[in-house]
Amino acid sequence: MSMKRRKLSNPLALAVMATLRQKPMHPYEIAQTLRRQGKDASTKINYGSLYTVVQNLEKHGFVTVTEVERQGNRPERTIYGLTDAGREEMVQWMSDLVAVPAKEFPIFETALSLLGVLHPDDVVRLLRERLGALEVQAASARGGLEKLYESLPRLFLIENEYQLHMIEAQARWVRGFLKELQEGSLPGIEQWRRFHETGEVPHDFEDGEAPGTET
Asked: Which helix (H) or strand (E) holds 199?
C-alpha cells in the first residue's frame, strides 16, 4: 500500500484543515489555536507560511472565504471555512498518514550510515554527548506531559506521548550501541579502528567503498 500523491504536501496544510474543522477562522486565529492546542510541538508554524498555505488551500478549493469582518477602523479580516472537498481531502490524507508507514529520512540515520568516517573513540565521545542531550529532552518532555495532562484530554496529547516514546527508544538504542563500542564487541570494530590508525582498507570494504575514501 503506497501513499497517494496529494495536491498539497505541506503538513501545515493538513493542520490548518483540521483546525478549520472546528469552526471558520481567520489565519491569525488559526495560528493561535494551533499554538494553544500544542500543535506547534509537532508542526512547524509561522505566520508567513501559514498565510501562503491558506491561499494554496483556497486555490485548490479546500477552503473558502465565509465572511469578511470589519470592525471600526481596524483592517478587515478574512474568515476561512473548510469546504466539502477540503473535508474529504483532510480525511483521506489523515487516513494515509495513519495507515501507511512512510519512509522518512531523519538526519541522524544519515549520520549513522556514514559513521565509518569517524574514529570509533570519537564516536563514543559524541554518542555520550547525544545520550546526555536525549536524557535531558526526555525528562523535559515527561515533565511537560504531566503538566499538560492536568488541563487537556489525553486525545490532544498523543503526539507528545509518541515524541517522548521515540526519544526514549533512541536513547535505549544509543545506550546499547555505546556499550558495544566501549566493550569492543561490535563486529568489525578492530578493522574500523585500524583503518583510522593506519589507513589500511579492511577486506570487508573492498566490495564497496571504505569510509572516507569516496571520490
From this structure: none
C-alpha cell at position 97 = 498518514
Q: Nearest-CA neighbor of 208 among 80, 76, 111, 113?
A: 113
pLDDT digits (tens, 9 = 90+) for 33-78: 998 887 877 788 877 889 999 999 999 999 999 999 887 777 788 9
Compute the CA torsion angle 88, 93, 96, 97 (nearest 10 deg): -140
Tell me if 196 sits within 8 A of 210, measured CB to CB: no
Rounded Cα distance between 192 and 187, Å, is 10
Q: Strand locations in the chain, DSSP E?
A: 63-69, 77-82
- Roughly what angle, to the nearest 10 degrees, separates helices 158-183 and 120-149? 160
